[in-house]
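Worked example 2:
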Amino acid sequence: MQEHRPWGWYEVLSEEDDHKVKRICVNPGQRLSLQSHQMRNEYWVMIRGHGTITLGKTRAIAQPGEYFHIPVGVLHRIHNTGSEPLVFIETQTGTYFGEDDIERFSDEYGRA
């Protein structure tokens, strides 16, 4: 089932005690909040579209076939700079996978 957000949507593909896997779609021109997590690592594999990822103090191009490791505690966000949806698979590993493990530092949509 898709969970809609101001930037697009995600759906959970797999959820177990030791991992969670999501398919995430970011609409053109939108971006996720600048955030970090304290209890999970994330691994992003780009499937479709183009954008820019911020990972700590670095920025990189996100395009199909690229993948990124986001360690616990590292600030990150992705911005769809293209004209089509940006789609990626996110695999979470760690000790907790709840949405309340998101600490937002900047958010265009007014979420704290």
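The radius of gyration is 13 Å. The CA atoms of residues 48 and 87 lie 5 Å apart.
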